[in-house]
Write a structure and sequence with these properties.
Elements lengths: L2 E2 L6 E3 L6 E6 L1 H18 L5 E7 L3 H10 L4 E9 L12 E4 L9 E9 L3 H11 L5 E9 L12 E5 L5 E2 L15 E5 L11
Parallel strand pairs: 1-9, 4-5, 4-7, 7-8, 8-9
Antiparallel strand pairs: 2-3, 3-11, 5-6, 10-11
Bound molecules: inosinic acid and magnesium ion.
Inosinic acid binds next to β7, α3 and β10.
């Protein structure tokens, strides 16, 4: 199950050069949903050690919050990819910038990602992971923007389905800023006109 999110509340003045953020998913709602997702995951694999692989840096807060709420045997690892550059425009290319610390062979791996957008990042990562012979792989994403999908990838656990807007907060950045916002919000770039968008 996933939750649909509609347009949020009034813009909150924040950031530089006329940038503003309108809250889309308040922190309490994020936490409630993350708790539900943790339960779903443990229910699907009641007796298995779960190996959570977080995609740096965007998934850090999501992984730490969901990780604390999955009972039983849980381990963590992190991987980092670059696809976005500094702004909101994707290069379309995905590159591994930090590999996992340990082998995933024979493990039940849950890939933990902040947002599923075009799907290029996850498609790349899933290819890399499949080659390493895990027992199985599942994908958990906090946010899903299905309108933007290019690659045919599927997430097993989706926190919120959101409209096609550029969002920041709760780990998600614009040029490395806004990750520390506890809520998820839609970023507007202000006087230059355009809303931030990924093309
Ligand atoms: P994809 O490869 O297009 O699916 O994009 C995945 C990555 O792009 C995510 O892990 C994010 O880091 C970044 N991204 C996609 N959409 C947004 C957004 O709305 N705000 C911030 N980062 C985003
Ligand atoms: Mg990311």
């Amino acid at each position: 199950m996933t939750k649909k999110v509609k347009q949020g509340k009034k813009p909150q003045p924040k950031g530089r050069g006329g940038e503003s953020v309108r809250i889309l998913i308040p922190r309490a709602r994020l936490q409630r949903r993350i708790t539900e997702m943790a339960r779903e995951i443990r229910k699907d694999f009641p007796d298995e050690p779960l190996h959570l692989v977080g995609v740096l840096k965007g998934a850090v807060f999501f992984l730490t919050d969901i990780g604390k709420q999955i009972p039983g045997d849980v381990s963590f690892d992190f991987i980092a990819v670059a696809s976005y550059g500094l702004g909101t425009h994707s290069s379309g290319q995905v590159r591994l910038t930090r590999d996992l610390d340990s082998s995933i062979e024979g493990k039940t791996v849950i890939v933990v990602e902040d947002i599923l957008d075009t799907g290029m990042t996850l498609q790349y990562l899933l290819r890399v992971f499949e080659q390493r012979k895990p027992k199985r792989i599942r994908v958990a994403v906090l946010l899903d923007k299905p309108e933007r999908r290019i690659a045919a990838v599927h997430a097993d656990y989706v926190g919120f389905t959101i409209p096609n807007e550029f969002v920041v907060g709760f780990g998600l950045d614009y040029a490395e800023r806004y990750r520390n916002m506890p809520d998820v919000g839609v970023l507007s770039l202000g006087s230059q006109g355009a809303k931030a968008s990924k093309t």
